[in-house]
Amino acid sequence: MKKILCYIVLASAGAGLAGCYEDKSTYATDQIPDIVLTDVTTTTLYMGYLEQIDFAPELTQDGKVLDDSYHYTWELNDVPDGNEFEIIGTERELHVSVPNGISTKPYLLKLTVEDPQNGLEYLFWWDLYIQSAFLDGLLVSDTKDGTTSDLTLVLNEKLTTNYAGKEEKIFRNILAESNGSPYPGLLSSLTPMLKGYISSPTHYIWAIDQEGAPVRFNCVDYSYATGSDVLLYQYEGQRFCKFLGASNNSACQMIFVAMTTAGNYGFNTINSDSFALPNASMTGAMKNGICASRSYSSNTECVAVWIDEETNHLIAGDMNASSGSLIYNTISGSGAYDADNLGDQEVIAGGMTYTESIPALLLKDNASGEYAIYTVTPHQAEVGHYTDPDNWEGWVVDTPEVPYGPRAKIDIPAEGKALLDQATGVTFCTMQAILYVATESGIYAIDFTSGTAVVSEAKFTPDDGERITSVELYQQGQYKYCSAMCSKDGSTDRQLLDWTNSAVIVTTQKSDTEGFVYVVPMVQIGTGNLDKGQALKYDGFGKILDVTTSGY
User: Fold this and answer.
1) In a 10 Å sphere around its CB, with 0-12 CB exposed, 13-18 middle and 19+ buried, how is residue 277 labelled?
2) Cα 330-336-337 angle, rounded to 5 deg
3) Which of 113, 296, 325, 409 shows its CA 20 to 30 Å from the CA of 274?
């Protein structure tokens, strides 16, 4: 007598096997050993979006590990809870990348194993969560064809928080992989933004394309939004010029501002992520699209300083967190220089220097061709006390108010002018009185700690055949959201990386189709010395358009 014996054996709560076979013996007394999953505790798997699944569960039959003589079929459903499955592998081990999207619900990964000797099939399954693999790191925009652009993200223990001891990962062609094609334009002005609080954030990268249009990327999967999804109404011919964000709260970024040729915009980042209409209180244009800015001010003051294109006056921007905008303060007075009569100046670079609260602008006098560093004294409110605090009477001033004003003017000597006349990039160092100047052949430091500019020999030279195209101070993405968010002692939400404010990002080109990125640490802080021997270097780029850091 023949009969069909069917059974289902559960290997664990989330993984199982099932099979049927035809009993060809007379009395059905022969025992066919089951195929057994050795690890029955692993019921849930996790992988990063667009990362490769590397999974090799150990399966045995009658105590022997299965080999390649068995038939294997790996399947994954197209959507969580979906009933349509796609075959993604036919080998004993699974090593494959899948395009499935990020989801808070698990996908179902199935493995069917066929025993070729008796034709039985055994089914195993696991919950598979696909999460964002794009942590904080170095983000590069480049073009291979001069028309489209794509993004590359580098994760490295020097550049990524909580990544010590982990293997470096490089995600290339992110937009082509996640969206099906590169961005149909050239992306620059990359700027990180945080929506909400750091405890439950949404991370964005904003960019400006070659037409001056804003683009917003979601760092979870680098899907992007343009047009009316990021700007309620765009004026004809309008071009975006500059993004900047700031905060007075260590748990979040508070405001995000855009300077454009048709008005200036801002919003509160706690609950917004797009621009509406120009802010009537933020008038005028930022000269050369350059300012000195910082990401945190405990008293909301002096988060940015720039020169107004129309009035030629220095403007200090204080933060208005409720409206997500800047309050403009015209800096006037004389002393180190006449803030009311700056003359015809071109803005070359801006940054915070000496300390995080001292703004500095590098200006070029268009009449003489000479360069100078102009620093600004930040506003300090009056500090005092009441002799009768219960009745709020008897105010006594302990420290008088210090208004915004000219602080210092540091002239650049002839050897510095010669470098700046051929500069491909310039950057100030936060917390140091150092200005780095890049030419095609080297990076030089101008030390103005003493109030007199001292120009160094080359601190960095590129590898043979390369020409330097830019230099900027390295700051991790979270620091760009809000510097008070980061610390070394664990007292804040994010780890402060050793290279933040202590390294520079350098881009070079061998040709318009072969670019490189260095991250070069400083040594002997305050001297401008750079340690090329400890630098990170990355290749594989076309023409590099911009570099920034992303937060997480």
Assistant:
1) exposed
2) 55
3) 296
